[in-house]
Amino acid sequence: MKQMSLFDEPTIVLPANYYPEFLNKEEADELYQHCQQLQWQQNQIRMLGKTMPVPRLECIYGDEGCDYLYSKSVLLKPLPWTDALAKLRDRITATTDYNFRIVIGNQYRSGQDSIGWHNDSESSMGLNPAIASISLGSVRKFQIKPIGGKPTDFWLEHGSLLVMLPGCQSTHLHQVPKTNKVVSTRINLTFRPHVGGKR
Ligand SMILES: O=C(O)CCC(=O)C(=O)O
Fold first, then answer.
1. Which of 55, 71, 73, 161 has CA 20 to 30 A from 42's CA?
2. Model confidence pLDDT, tens digit, residues 143-156
3. CATH number of the domain enclosing 186
4. Which of 59, 100, 174 best tests ligand 1's pocket when mutated (most atoms within 8 Å of CB)?
């Protein structure tokens, strides 16, 4: 399995690993088709006293009871694993040695869909979670920066796997910014641990 650290420049060390061809094209195309059948929702988020639509569609699958609350406002309740998502989860675990109990999907319908600077530090994931992120469809810019530092840009390819390693969420922020370029749909699947739910 080809694995690279995200950047070869010796001055930039990121707590993440990138596997550009984790899925081959045929596997990635098939998974993309599967993901189009998932139960995508338009959730609402409350920020600065206002309620607004989350600027992307979301879905969640996982172990029973592993609810996921983010930004103290959006509660995601997992549906049971599909066979394809469970198979993918096990394959990521076999490669990375990390275990996952939920997968949250993000669907970016156009360049106007996005996710702003944030870290994923919800206590339901436990301390120092590893988060594994599969990208499908259109390539979008992904940015990551140390808290208080400068961002580094890169592009997550169809079929790639990005693993944000334990500790990454405490030291770094990441985002997928809006773009005015014409881009078609991108689907992202983030596999995460969870400390609750039924075992
Ligand atoms: O779409 C991506 O690559 C990033 C998704 C993300 O940051 C998140 O789900 O927290």
1. 161
2. 999 999 999 888 99
3. 2.60.120.590
4. 174
